[in-house]
Write a structure and sequence with these properties.
The complex is a heterodimer of chains A (189) and B (301). By secondary structure, chain A is α+β, with helices and mostly antiparallel strands. Chain A contains 5 helices and 5 strands. In chain B, the strands form 4 sheets. In chain B, strands 4-5-10-6-7 form a 5-stranded antiparallel beta sheet. Chain B has a 4-stranded antiparallel beta sheet with strand order 11-12-13-14. In chain B, strands 1-3-2 form a 3-stranded parallel beta sheet, with helices on one face. Chain B is globular.
Chain lengths: 189, 301
């Protein structure tokens, strides 16, 4: 077997600029739930651990810590992602939204209210991640199809409810005026 | 803390990334979307000394058509491929397969280059690349290499990319005229890695198959083509018997792995069935595409 085709060099060998050498810690600034945050972190600290341990935002839960269960899902620049598969240092300069941003004081977000009403949770461990994914779905698709709801929930494991209550809750929240808005999240483009 | 200690660098250009890889090569790991690497770190199955995070290199994220190829920058998120009208129009096989990669929350971060470079034996995108006879662009200290898929995937989780090189682009050739494609897989749950996946591309010539290509995932160390079945199909009418025979021919040489999810025998059986179904779907779509092709061409087509 050969080594593949060698094409003419498109990128000439470059005498590199000085690159900042790899470091074990970093100082990061980011926006979390609308507030600017600056911290020095170990670079191996996941965003999930940073949120929970450094910022005290323990609403984000950690289940499997390898991207399967979805409990740690948060919004990065508005898009649902696994916070266990992202290092805090990678969130520098970005906007993170967690489940704490949903409710306003004692007032539940319409999605949370729908979960309560439709038995969308039992033990509640998986709920924060599901809420963030469902929130992003309803923001982008105020009237999602059943298939869109199922695809979104497919990225989350729930061992209590059997999912039907969650599906009902998301569909019930869909179309309520405020389901796709969060007070603390700055408007995105 | 779950991941082992490492040092982290975030280059802002390909040149900076190459400088870091030149210095730390074998001890370094490139971090793109992180949806495969970070689980390995969290389980401490890999312990690189240095992580080179290429996410700041924004110019590696693009989807464009050049001639008869779709060029996808290595850092292009899978979710952006899924949402791309250009991808859907130019390479429907890629558009279909990308939806089977993980979940939306994974595809928001996961990248095309990362999926190709990680070379998981059950991943979808390597099979798509194999079915289309695609190429991977790799940049290193000596310049740029364009590597055909069959030389790129060298074994289980291994590729031809050197420790001082970076994958920068994945090139998907556009399917030939009068062709249709299908990507089918069987997985335990939607979003899981496939037990078996099949990419099929069929070119029609009147009532016959002019040419067919088949690529598997999940049944070998990397993506596998099915040359015997492809040769058998050329020039034949796609009768149920012919498609079933193609499935048998394609599955016969396979030696799929045995694991807790499925036995080797089961995977072989599923492979034959999926080939039959994928060929039938690809044939039907080739017909539909041909009818669509008679309409005036759209401006950006």
């Amino acid at each position: 077997m050969g080594e593949g085709t060698v094409a003419p060099a498109r990128v000439a060998p470059v005498r590199p600029r000085r690159v900042r050498p790899p470091a074990a810690t970093a100082t990061v600034t980011l926006t979390v739930n609308g507030r600017p945050v600056e911290a020095t972190v170990e670079v191996r600290k996941t965003l999930a651990d940073f949120l929970r341990e450094d910022l005290g935002l323990t609403g984000t839960h950690l289940g499997c810590e390898h991207g399967v269960c979805g409990a740690c899902t948060v919004l990065l620049d508005g898009a649902p992602v696994r916070s266990c598969l992202l290092f805090a240092v990678q969130a520098a300069g970005h906007t993170v939204t967690t489940v704490e941003a949903l409710s306003t004081g004692e007032t539940l977000h319409p999605l949370q209210e729908a979960f309560r009403r439709h038995h969308g949770l039992q033990c509640g461990f998986c709920t924060p991640g599901i809420l963030m994914s469902a929130y992003a779905l309803l923001r982008d698709h105020p009237h999602p199809t059943d298939a869109q709801v199922l695809e979104t929930l497919g990225g989350h494991l729930c061992r209590c409810t059997g999912y039907q209550g969650i599906v009902d809750a998301v569909l019930a929240a869909a179309g309520t005026a405020a389901a796709g808005t969060v007070g603390a999240e700055p408007p995105t483009g | 803390m779950k991941p082992p200690p490492f040092r982290y660098a975030a280059p802002r250009s390909v040149a900076e990334a190459l400088a870091l890889l030149a210095e730390y090569g074998p001890e370094a790991k490139v971090l793109a979307g992180g949806q495969s690497l970070v689980p390995l770190l969290n389980m401490r199955l890999v312990r690189p000394e240095v992580i080179v995070d290429i996410n700041p290199i924004g110019r590696l994220a693009y989807i464009r058509r050049r001639g008869d190829r779709l060029l996808v920058g290595a850092l292009t998120r899978q979710r952006d491929v899924e949402a791309s009208a250009l991808v859907a129009r130019a390479v429907p096989l890629l558009a279909e397969a990308i939806r089977l990669v993980g979940h939306p929350q994974i595809r928001n971060r996961g990248t095309v280059g990362g999926s190709i470079a990680h070379a998981d034996p059950a991943a979808e995108l390597p099979a798509v690349l194999a079915a289309l006879d695609g190429e991977v662009v790799v940049v290193g200290p000596a310049g740029t290499r364009v590597i055909g898929w069959e030389h790129f995937f060298t074994g289980y989780l291994t590729t031809a990319v050197g420790p001082d090189e970076l994958v920068t682009e994945v090139r998907f050739p556009l399917p030939p005229p009068r062709s249709g494609s299908a990507f089918l897989e069987v997985a335990r749950r939607h979003g899981d890695f496939a037990l078996v996946g099949v990419a099929a591309l069929v070119q029609r010539e009147d009532g016959r198959i002019a040419a067919a290509r088949l690529a598997f995932t999940g049944v070998g160390p990397g993506p596998l083509r099915a040359p015997e079945a492809e040769a058998f199909l050329a020039g034949r009418e796609p009768t149920p018997e012919v498609l079933a025979e193609a499935g048998r021919l394609a599955a016969a040489p396979l030696e799929p792995p045995d694991d807790i999810h499925a036995t080797s025998t089961y995977r072989k059986e599923v492979a034959a069935v999926l080939v039959r179904r994928a060929l039938a779907a690809a044939w039907d779509r080739a017909a539909a595409r041909r009818r669509a092709g008679r309409r005036p061409r759209d401006a950006d087509g």
